[in-house]
Design brief:
Layout (H helix, E strand, L loop, with lengths): L1 H14 L3 H28 L2 H30 L4 H12 L1 H8 L1 H9 L6 H52 L4 H18 L11 E9 L2 E8 L4 E6 L2 E7 L4 E2 L2 H10 L7 E5 L5 H8 L3 E6 L2 H10 L7 E4 L2 H7 L4 E6 L14 H10 E13 L7 H12 L5 E3 L17 E8 L28 E2 L17 H4 L1 H21 L6
Parallel strand pairs: 6-7, 6-9, 7-8, 9-10
Antiparallel strand pairs: 1-2, 2-3, 3-4, 4-5, 10-12, 11-12, 11-13
């Protein structure tokens, strides 16, 4: 279980944390174990089961020791094969073999424990009970404590060292040379793997923060040439800021702040998704009172330390849906800006959640939702489904004009993937404010205002109503997910490789 979790976290750095990655990891893990169980049964009938068990432990320990380097090599070689193909190929190459060897262990242990046929059932039950309880315990320890505190590479080495102890004790006397070789291999591999990475002396990229956690790898990287700083989660940009001016390089941040200025100073804002805190800074500058929710405990610390997020905000470490459901506070503005990497929160874009948001809003309350997708074509079902679900939830959706279209919807190829913003309101509202009260960061931008603020007549009726029983945003979002991840693979990863920056 621990190795399965590590495999998923390693794959996420290159291929994201989507349903496809988890499906690939789970199916390949189970498939590898099944193949190992079959092979283990065959081995137990033809070889010394005790020796086979310790040999399998030794092979697994060695494979685990080499897993970070091998996984990094494999994924770099497969990223050009396509998103889904790359995920499956990578997992087959660095997860499947280890699972096969692990699968051979239970049948051989059962053979060692079984002296006669009537005790076989009891032995089998004991082995798989111990295996399951150990798996649960290890998963909790690795997921909640070891990975967040030590990172993926160190966690892998810790597990490898634990796995190698039994075979070392078994082979130490009979195969002293082998045992010494294993010890040296472990020492050299770990020393090399933990060696601090050295970038090129003249590199224009500087990594100022890097950590691994259950919610993904987080990196803060500076481009010294442009004086810009990026917050990356699994190599997908979450925040992009010009360091000297502290200005976000994402236009939607300034756009959303300007549109939010239609509400009076002192209005209460709930922001779901902190990112680097750029949007929080602009909301606070407008005199709005902000509560911000993020599930990743690292996000607020990184936003404060590296992106100068104001302390005039109330931070809640919580799942957005859980906070929305349990909060007793009412808000004038609710903002959903929660993509984790390229993934969208399926549990939030549902009819039940939109109804909960509607109950959370004041009578004149409004909702902003930031999303990446297309408006027309075979993939427009996603934005139309969100809009239709908002409508069914009593939030009167309108599609904000994001500069690429005018109010009549022309001058734009609607089948192109791009930035979209939905506006919802508890009461039917004509969004034609001039937004004169706006933050200084929005001043240079001539965002649509007045009657041109929304795209008139966009039809959400052909969308699906998303529910808690059918939370399929992962499926509807597949094309955009692949496009976003593909852009990272083609642009960001090669830069890191060129600058000798370890990704894993």
């Amino acid at each position: 279980m621990a190795l399965e979790l590590l495999g998923a976290r390693m794959a996420a750095i290159y291929f994201g944390n989507s349903l496809y990655v988890w499906t690939s990891i789970l199916s390949i893990t189970v498939g590898g174990l099944a193949a190992g169980y079959f092979a283990g049964g065959y081995i137990s009938q033809r070889y010394d089961s005790r020796k086979a068990t310790y040999t399998a432990f030794l092979i697994t320990a060695m494979a685990t020791l080499l897993m970070p380097g091998w996984a990094d090599f494999v994924m770099l070689k497969t990223i050009d094969t396509g998103y889904q193909t790359g995920v499956v190929l990578s997992c087959l190459l660095f997860v499947f073999p280890i699972m096969i060897v692990l699968g051979t262990i239970p049948p051989n242990i059962i053979k060692n424990m079984t002296t006669e046929s009537k005790t076989a059932g009891n032995s089998t039950g004991s082995v798989y009970t111990a295996s399951t309880v150990g798996g649960i315990t290890t998963t909790i320890l690795v997921g909640f404590y070891i990975i967040p505190n030590f990172g993926l590479r160190s966690t892998t080495y810790i597990i490898a060292c634990i796995l190698v102890i039994p075979p070392l004790l078994f082979f130490l006397r009979s195969r002293t040379l082998l045992s010494v070789g294993v010890i040296l291999t472990f020492a050299l591999t770990i020393a090399f793997g933990m060696k601090p990475e050295k970038q090129k002396p003249n590199s224009h990229v500087r990594i100022v923060y890097k950590t691994d956690g259950l919610l993904g790898q987080m990196i803060v990287a500076d481009d010294l040439n442009t004086e810009k700083r990026s917050l990356l989660v699994n190599n997908i940009s979450q925040t992009f800021m010009h360091i000297p001016s502290r200005r976000s390089q994402w236009r939607y941040i300034h756009r959303m702040a300007m549109y939010a200025s239609m509400m009076p100073q002192g209005s209460n804002v709930l922001l779901c998704g902190i990112g680097g805190g750029n949007l929080i800074n602009e909301m606070v500058a407008l005199g709005l009172k902000v509560d911000a929710v993020d599930l990743d405990e690292r996000m607020a610390e990184v936003a404060s330390k590296y992106f100068m997020m104001t302390n005039q905000v109330q931070i809640y470490e919580d799942d957005a849906r859980h906070f929305i459901r349990t909060s007793n506070k009412v808000y004038d503005i609710v903002i959903l800006d929660m993509s984790a990497g390229e993934n969208q929160p399926s549990n939030v874009y549902t009819l039940e959640c939109f109804k909960e948001i509607q109950n959370l809003l004041t009578d004149q309350g409004i909702l902003f939702l930031h999303y990446q997708n297309v408006l027309e074509g075979e993939n427009d079902i996603a934005i139309k489904s969100i809009g239709k679900t908002m409508e069914q939830g009593g939030l009167n959706p309108q599609l904000l004009n994001t500069d690429k279209v005018n109010s009549d919807g022309d001058k734009f190829k609607w089948n192109q993937n791009g930035e979209l913003m939905l506006f919802g309101s508890k009461q039917p509202m004509t969004l034609n404010s001039e937004f004169e009260r706006r933050d200084r960061f929005a001043d240079p931008f001539n965002f649509p205002r007045g009657a041109n603020t929304v795209i008139k007549g966009y039809d959400f009726s052909k969308g699906m109503v998303l529910t808690d029983d059918l939370p399929i945003m992962d499926v509807l979002h597949t094309t955009t997910l692949s496009t976003t991840r593909g852009a990272s693979i083609k642009t960001l990863v090669p830069i890191f490789i060129k600058e000798n920056i370890k990704i894993l």
